[in-house]
Design a protein that fits this description.
The protein is mainly beta. It has 2 domains: about 50-180; about 185-315, no CATH class. The protein has 2 helices and 22 strands. The chain has helices at about 20-45, 95-100; strands at about 50-55, 65-75, 85-90, 105, 115-120, 120-130, 135-140, 150, 155-160, 165-175, 185-190, 205, 215, 225, 235-240, 245-250, 270, 275-280, 300-310, 310-315, 330-335, 340-345. A 5-stranded mixed beta barrel has the order 1-3-2-4-5. The chain has a 5-stranded mixed β-barrel with strand order 6-8-7-9-10. β15 (about 235-240) and β16 form a beta hairpin. The longest helix is centred in the N-terminal third of the chain and has 27 residues, at about 20-45.
């Protein structure tokens, strides 16, 4: 087979085979198509469906494939342009505000205060701070624009990552129906609705219950309480693993009595559930105290978030059975033939 792209020297007769000529036409046509597509997009200001314009208000210059949390719309909702185009404002990401897909990946370097292009969905090579090699998701890292962090469940699916812990390159997909952008997250329960608490003997009790499950975000890094660490500043969240609860430092400006653990030092620590689950997702008219408490302290459960009256509320993503009307029962302590105490419930 002859060489389709054989070079010609000075003085030689130019003979162009059909195969060579057709290849030249194909290349020229492809170049023209791509050039026209760029011209149409740039001239009209219309971006691909997965991209938006964003103003970098983070206080730092960002590079391509960096992370900005979505803070605001730069176009007033009362403006006619609001329905025609989108320009967002981006800041340094904060997990509490920008997880669950409320961030963008920059498509080009953007100086602080400038406007550039960014992707709101897609597939990207990106750096991840890997804290656990079993993590299969990633999400925003507090105050970090250069990387995401690995989490148990989050808005970006990790398709592949380098082996090991620490800052690693990975391929991720976020947004769209293929994963990411979900409002679902997992929490570790620290409190569940109360069950009846009765002593031995005959007495009548009514199921008291309460209306909340409480817990902390699963996969999020917490400061473990250690009496030898530097005093924790006011507002810091401390995880005390003896009782599995999170505590918030209320002392100002910092904890002074470090030898007392958070559970003992209630003057300087306050129990702080990050997530309070108020109702069940399937029917928010049913209170949790009216359902079977199928979860226990330490269980990892899925919850979804919704904005209600400008507040974020959390709901169980699991199906929960209705307990029905609260009933009164007689609890009697009796002794069987073996001498063991047993409890008999008489309705």
């Amino acid at each position: 087979m002859s060489d389709t792209f054989k070079r010609v020297r000075d003085g030689e007769k130019l003979r162009i085979p059909a195969r060579t000529y057709n290849a030249m036409i194909d290349a020229a046509q492809d170049y023209a198509n791509r050039k026209n597509a760029r011209a149409d997009s740039d001239a009209s200001g219309v971006l691909p469906v997965n991209m938006v314009y964003i103003k970098n208000s983070s206080g730092v210059n960002v590079d391509r494939l960096n992370i900005l949390g979505i803070s605001n719309s730069m176009i007033d909702v009362a403006s006619n342009n609001f329905k025609q185009s989108t320009i967002l404002e981006g800041i340094k990401p904060v997990f509490a505000n920008h997880s669950s897909g409320r961030f963008v990946v920059t498509a080009e370097p953007i100086k602080d205060g400038a406007v550039g292009r960014a992707c709101i969905t897609g597939y990207f090579p990106i750096q991840i701070d890997v804290t656990n090699e079993s993590h299969t998701y990633a999400d925003v890292n507090d105050d970090i624009v250069t990387s995401l962090k690995s989490v148990e469940t989050g808005s970006a699916v990790i398709l592949w990552k380098e082996i090991g812990l620490g800052l690693k390159w990975a391929l991720v997909r976020f947004g769209g129906s293929g994963g990411g952008g979900s409002s679902e997250l997992k929490i570790i329960l620290s409190k569940v609705p109360d069950e009846p608490n009765v002593d031995a003997g005959e007495l009548t009790v009514e199921y008291p219950g309460n209306n909340t499950y409480e817990g902390r975000i699963y996969g999020k890094a917490y400061t473990q309480w250690n009496p030898t660490d530097d005093p924790y500043p006011n507002g810091a969240l401390i995880y005390y693993n003896v009782d599995g609860l999170t505590y918030k430092v209320t002392a100002s400006p910092a904890v002074t009595n470090m030898e007392l653990n958070p559970k003992e030092n209630t003057a300087e620590y306050m129990e702080f559930p990050e997530i309070i689950v108020e109702h069940v997702e399937q029917n928010e008219n049913i209170l949790l105290k009216e359902t079977f408490p199928i979860f226990q302290v330490g269980d990892i459960v899925r919850v979804v978030s919704r904005t209600v009256d400008n507040q974020t509320k959390y709901y169980l993503a699991h199906t929960v059975s209705n307990r029905g009307e609260t009933e009164t029962a007689n609890i009697m302590s009796i002794t069987d033939t073996s001498g063991k105490n047993v409890v008999k419930v008489v309705y």
